[in-house]
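Recap from last week: sequence in, structure out.
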Amino acid sequence: MNVLEVNEVHKKLGRRDIIKGISFSVKEGEIFGFLGPNGAGKTTTIRMMVGLIKPNKGSITICGHDVAKNTKLALAQVGAVVENPEMYAYLTGRQNLNMVADIRGLDRKSVDEVVEIVNLQNRINDKVRKYSLGMKQRLGLAAALIAKPKLLILDEPTNGLDPTGILDFREIVKKASKVANTAVFISSHILSEVQQLCDTVAFISSGEIKAVESIAGGQVNNETETLVIITKEPDKGYGIIAKMDSVRQVNREDNVFTVTAEKEAACDIIRGLVTEGVDIYEVYKKHNQLEQRYMELVEGGKRA
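Predicted structure tokens:
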């Protein structure tokens, strides 16, 4: 079941097109990464998802409820942590969570449940002003999870955290997703975090979705593979490779080619070079890491 559906959404701010017809969906229990550079449209998309602004065209639905038309019903299924969550520093962690439970009409027993999920049992009765940034992030996550939301939205959730805090936060998000079958939407520009945490990633640049692809074992699964080919005759080799139907992109540096091609095309490419008399010194397949895919889709294969 799709918990979140974003369908052909457009948004203008003044005369400027910020979001240009984006579409994607997030399923139950899925951790979905929304990856792009600063200014790509990530925050604007989240503001529309939580009803702070409305799209000019298209629709956003959460558990079948249109966010623009049935805001209250849609957002009843949502928990969110946006950067550094604000809590009352003069109260204890438990008092803060009790307030959230009371406001949402929940039994305070739910507080103990989320405290265990975020692993704050030993410090929950301390004043929040004594918390580290990582502990404050975990408390904010507990507040977001207290109503057992179907969708958890995290906007740059690891900003400012040290390595230990990042590891803790990552494990807590995974646990929350799997235990409650919660759909998790994570907006970030940190490639390593998305690669290690998410099941699926959408690449956004200049308000457009460039691709939505699955991640397995830290590798991006898509319809292409990348080969590195080193030849004795680079000029002749480039002309042959560039004309092949299975080849999507060729980058050349001296006699070294980085070739993006359709999956299983390696044999045809090598055969084509050899048939035309081009000697090959070396050929190997590159693992399709998220960083490489990001550069292909968002930066056009070139680093500014």
